[in-house]
Design brief:
172 residues; alpha/beta; Rossmann fold; four-stranded parallel sheet; 5 helices; 42% helix; 20% strand; globular; binds 5-nitro-6-ribityl-amino-2,4(1H,3H)-pyrimidinedione
Length: 172
């Protein structure tokens, strides 16, 4: 997919917020770059190393199950999923990508914990490297920033009284 990731306005993580990163070992050298990008983004927004747990799984197919187990513990403000799927000569790619994307989305919706998608889905290895800290960015970094932003957004929503009108114009 073409496109440029948005410039994010991500506030530093709230004190005590913990994050998990789940990494698919398949295409490990590329996925390791995604992990590095995710950890750097978290560190850059005030999440100390001991507030981050890294969990490795065999492949991107397994990301949703691990993310679900971690999100259900309620120990994390966000779960970042990273992996690298490269198209081969068979439809296997479509199944792995589909399960990963759908499953990761479902875990976020089912648990209410931000669970973000840092999975490269590339037609070639070259494309994958470009998205792992190369010319097209780092999908792991982007997914960590999305988790930080959503964690902050959800935190802000939970601080609002249900049904309350915003103060200002129209408020009585
Ligand atoms: N898993 C990946 O993360 N990337 C791939 O490119 C890939 N390919 O090409 O097969 C892949 N397959 C493994 C899959 O994720 C599961 O680990 C496996 O099917 C066992 O459930």
């Amino acid at each position: 997919m073409a496109g440029i990731a948005p410039k994010r306005r991500v506030a530093p993580a709230a004190r005590g917020q913990r994050f998990a990163v789940v990494v698919a070992r398949f295409n490990e050298p590329i996925s390791k770059k995604l992990l590095d990008g995710a950890l750097a983004a978290l560190a850059g927004h005030g999440v100390s190393g001991d507030a981050v747990e890294v969990h490795w799984v065999p492949g991107s197919f397994e990301l949703p199950q691990a993310a679900q187990a971690l999100a259900r513990t309620r120990r994390f403000a966000g779960v970042v999923c990273v992996g690298t799927v490269i198209k081969g000569a068979t439809p296997h790619f479509d199944y792995v990508c589909g399960v990963a994307a759908h499953g990761i989305s479902r875990v976020g919706l089912d648990t209410g914990v931000p669970v973000t998608f840092g999975v490269i889905t590339a037609l070639t290895e070259e494309q994958a490297w470009e998205r792992a800290g190369g010319a097209v960015g780092n999908r792991g970094e982007e997914a960590a920033l999305a988790a930080l932003e959503m964690a902050g957004w959800l935190r802000a929503q939970s601080g609002r009284r249900a049904g309350a009108r915003p103060a200002g114009r129209g408020a009585r």
